[in-house]
Amino acid sequence: MRPYQKEKVKNYSARIPQWKKIDKEIQQLTKQYHQIDPGSIETFKDFPLSQKTLDGLVKADFKNPTDIQREAIGVALQGHDILGAAMTGSGKTLAFLIPVLECLYRARWTSNDGLGILIISPTRELAYQTFEVLKKIGQFHDFSAALIIGGKDLKGEQERINRTNIIVCTPGRLLQHFDETWNFSCENLKMLIIDEADRTLDMGFAETMKSIVSNLP
Fold it and tell me: Q motif: where is this motif (predicted)?
């Protein structure tokens, strides 16, 4: 008689291709979008967000959404346009960056798809701050991102701009690329975000923004 040996439990989940796991997660998440109730949201885990985004939020020490985040994130996930207004420090940046990541994740975006998200900020400082937050909460995603602002190497930006999935930029620099970067394409753009839109106009960028929008699909 052979001694008793505990039967090994086979891990069938390990055999499931990664793309199937992602597809399943996306299907489960999108089914929950219409059920989002801002009043019942206490933590970011209460939103139907991808595990990669949730991991990024935890790593960056973001736990509890602010009022603007509770109200805006669900609407953005459902694909609606948003005009948001809130005080400085209220969390507007995270309110649009989370839907940005989820939008590309849901679309299974890759570097071959090119530019998917365009975020325009009125100043270099604000663009830099937005880019830093994006890097923190998006660190577990595979998307490429670039900070496109004046004062940096234009040629270097031109070489990588079409391989970038998310661009955070200032109006003047973006328009310069439309004028001088011959292969710069926005034909696959999924989302346009104008951060501090009122301030952008107050700073005299109205004509620049008109020119930018005219170059978008």
Answer: 42-70
